[in-house]
Amino acid sequence: MATFVQSLVRAVAQRTRAAADALHPRLGGWPGLGWNDLDAAFTQAGVGIVLVDSDGRLLHGNATAARIWGLTREQLAQRTYAELFSANAEHPQAWASQEPRDVQSVHAQGHALALRIHATPVGPTASERIVVIEDRTERVGSEQLLVHQKRVLELMARNLPLNEILAGIVGLIEDQAPGALSTIYLVDAEGRLRLGAAPSWPAEFVAAVDGCPIGPEAGSCGAAAFFGRRMVSTDIANGGDPCWGPYRDWILGYGIKAAWSTPVLGDGGEVRGTVSMCWREVREPTARELELVDVATRLMGMAIERSRREIEINEQRAQLVTAARDDENRRLLRAIIDSTSDGIVATDERGRIIARNRAATELWRIADGAASDLASLLRAAALQARDGEALVAQLE
């Protein structure tokens, strides 16, 4: 298919019906193919196709090539090979072989492109190159995203502190969306934002946000946590988004012109925190970026719930240890009290007996249940004395 498309490009480049007709023997039994057919196939091809001359100028390019870079065909024709693939990119004419190469480029909106290009020499002197371009950005991005997700899950499996896991999630976002500044905030029991991770932000910014109450005018993060839904501000300065309220000039002072924040929900639907992406230019989120944030929020939700369960387990373990230690202490104390030869009786504030040692029972020969309070115990003991009746009279 690539050979056929490249042949079509050559026909378009030469712009002669004779050239197109000359291709017929090489098109494998398509004798009825004409110029309009070739031009239509060239235009609608599912891969980008450009013709580059020996000086690196783009002589022709199809619609797919223009779409790859977010340009019109007219804008694409004004670019050079070096402008599209960076000044350090090796011109296809210098390639030692015609094997496909993976190269990097930049979309008109600023995000990175991962491309695979095939170059074939054409023209009377083979000085021109037909370059077939396969856009692999989404595939490469998905592969990289899976690698990052695996790393974050490994952090969880290693039982690392929550803030280290959240820093890994922020790294995932910023690596997959070059130019974005990401933050993660947790929401405490009092409805305040607490720093989760913001490695790319200055310390004064982090300190200023930490502890701020959530609310409808508490910036994109505070509003997302307050409303429990994603907040998108594509133009903070001029968009009229009410969520920024008194924070508008403050965030603009950091050069931030667009931002979107997504709440992270717990297992019960309660807001646990927020994930945000901030940008230094006015822009709208792409579908890829929103998908990236959704992945990050799922990972963050898992990390938070795991951390909460770990805290609960540790608290329960501590309570069990304390209870066991208390039981052991009580057993030791009981053994000490029972080992003494003195009778010991413990009562509550009403005088009711709540405990007595073995010596008290044996010394006074009072069976369990025979005396329920201190007064009855003393009466029972007094009756055993030599002058029991006089002692009882004194007690009464």
Written account of the structure:
- The protein is of the alpha+beta class and 396 residues long.
- The chain is 46% helix and 18% strand.
- It is built from 15 helices and twelve strands.
- The strands form three sheets. A five-stranded antiparallel β-sheet has the order 2-1-5-4-3. Strands 7-6-10-9-8 form a five-stranded antiparallel β-sheet, with helices on both faces.
- Helix 1 (2-14) crosses helix 3 and helix 7 runs parallel beside helix 12 (287-339).
- Mean pLDDT is 79; it is low at 1-9 and 11-28.
The best one-word shape is elongated
Mean pLDDT: 79
User: Could you state the order of secondary-structure elements as H and E?
Assistant: HHHEEHHHEEEHHEEHHEHEEHEEHHH
Strand share of the residues?
A: 15-25%
Q: Can you give the helix content as a percent range?
A: 40-55%
Can you list the strand order of the major beta sheet? 2-1-5-4-3
End-to-end separation = 116 Å
Radius of gyration: 40 Å
For the biggest sheet, the summary is: 5 strands, antiparallel
Helical run tally: 15
Helix- and strand-based class? alpha+beta
- Note poorly predicted spans: 1-9, 11-28
How many β-strand stretches?
A: 12
Keywords summarizing the entry:
15 helices; 46% helix; 5-stranded antiparallel sheet
In short:
The chain has helices at 2-14, 17-22, 35-44, 63-69, 73-77, 81-85, 137-157, 162-176, 203-209, 219-227, 248-252, 287-339, 358-364, 374-383, 388-395; strands at 48-52, 58-61, 101-106, 112-122, 128-135, 181-187, 193-197, 231-233, 258-265, 271-279, 345-347, 353-356. It has 396 residues and is α+β, with helices and mostly antiparallel strands.
